[in-house]
């Protein structure tokens, strides 16, 4: 199915991550299919402890599933893999270099996302020209150890400032059981990793989150 990744990003509410800290290599395709079936709007491949060669091998199976579903495929951290896998987007952390450096490597078309951890970083990412940001971690999370939760106090302000220009995805410790609070704090787009990947029925959990986000307006 052909989709314009830029339009898909603009409409996205739930950003799913296939994080290989939660899913074995053997179960990765199955988990990807379940995330897509449930209705994630974007899907990122994140494998912090894997070699590039192993990520590439898995990415060759995951990226086509996303393409088939019309869901933008996002590569975390590695511009070279993003190119090789024909990713729709590349996601960069604060320490992963500048937008200009990434642009030189991946060209003009690929969408670029940035992790931000304060309102100042969020604003800077907008000024730099990133296409979307993650904002968090709202709560401490086992998926990103060593970072304190920044809480929900700034969510509304960042949404009103940066979020009217580019998509802002709140991230970090968001679960189905605190999602209502996060929406109440002003979030309209979220990334949820562990709560979805460890759910007994991933597709149903994804669909439940989508429904809450879409009905929040
Ligand atoms: N980035 P979970 S928090 C990958 O704040 C990631 O930039 C974060 O996983 C950031 O939904 C995070 O399991 C982990 O908490 C999100």
From TrEMBL:
Keywords: Magnesium, Metal-binding, Thiamine biosynthesis, Transferase
Co-factor binding details: Binds 1 Mg(2+) ion per subunit.
Residues of the signal peptide: none
Catalytic activity: 4-methyl-5-(2-phosphooxyethyl)-thiazole + 4-amino-2-methyl-5-(diphosphooxymethyl)pyrimidine + H(+) = thiamine phosphate + diphosphate; 2-(2-carboxy-4-methylthiazol-5-yl)ethyl phosphate + 4-amino-2-methyl-5-(diphosphooxymethyl)pyrimidine + 2 H(+) = thiamine phosphate + CO2 + diphosphate; 2-[(2R,5Z)-2-carboxy-4-methylthiazol-5(2H)-ylidene]ethyl phosphate + 4-amino-2-methyl-5-(diphosphooxymethyl)pyrimidine + 2 H(+) = thiamine phosphate + CO2 + diphosphate
Residues involved in Mg(2+) binding: 77, 96
Residue ranges annotated for the Thiamine phosphate synthase/TenI domain, each copy included: 14-195
Annotated 4-amino-2-methyl-5-(diphosphooxymethyl)pyrimidine binding sites: 44-48, 76, 115, 144
InterPro entries: Aldolase_TIM, ThiamineP_synth_sf, ThiamineP_synth_TenI, TMP_synthase
Cofactor annotation: Mg(2+)
Protein EC: 2.5.1.3
Single GO term (MF): thiamine-phosphate diphosphorylase activity
Known pathway: Cofactor biosynthesis; thiamine diphosphate biosynthesis; thiamine phosphate from 4-amino-2-methyl-5-diphosphomethylpyrimidine and 4-methyl-5-(2-phosphoethyl)-thiazole: step 1/1
Domain of life: Bacteria
Function description: Condenses 4-methyl-5-(beta-hydroxyethyl)thiazole monophosphate (THZ-P) and 2-methyl-4-amino-5-hydroxymethyl pyrimidine pyrophosphate (HMP-PP) to form thiamine monophosphate (TMP).
NCBIfam families xref list: thiE
Family per record: Belongs to the thiamine-phosphate synthase family.
Name of the protein this chain belongs to: Thiamine-phosphate synthase
């Amino acid at each position: 199915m052909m989709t314009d990744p830029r339009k898909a990003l603009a409409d996205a509410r739930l950003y799913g991550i296939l994080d290989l800290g939660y899913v074995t290599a053997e179960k990765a395709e199955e988990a990807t299919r379940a995330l897509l079936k449930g209705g994630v709007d974007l899907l990122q491949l994140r494998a912090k402890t894997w070699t590039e060669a192993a990520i590439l091998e898995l990415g060759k199976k995951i990226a086509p599933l996303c393409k088939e579903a019309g869901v933008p495929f996002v590569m975390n951290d590695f511009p070279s893999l993003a190119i090789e896998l024909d990713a729709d987007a590349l996601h960069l952390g604060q320490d992963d270099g500048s937008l200009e450096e990434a642009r030189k490597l991946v060209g003009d078309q690929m969408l670029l996302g940035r992790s931000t951890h304060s309102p100042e970083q969020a604003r800077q990412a907008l000024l730099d020209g990133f296409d979307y940001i993650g904002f968090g971690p709202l709560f401490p999370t086992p998926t990103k150890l060593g970072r304190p939760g920044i809480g929900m106090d700034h969510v509304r302000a960042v949404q009103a400032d940066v979020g009217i220009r580019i998509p802002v995805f709140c991230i970090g410790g968001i679960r189905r059981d605190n999602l209502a609070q996060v929406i109440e704090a002003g979030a309209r787009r979220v990334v949820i990793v562990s709560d979805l990947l460890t759910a007994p029925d991933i597709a149903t959990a994804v669909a439940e989150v989508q429904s809450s986000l879409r009905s929040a307006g």
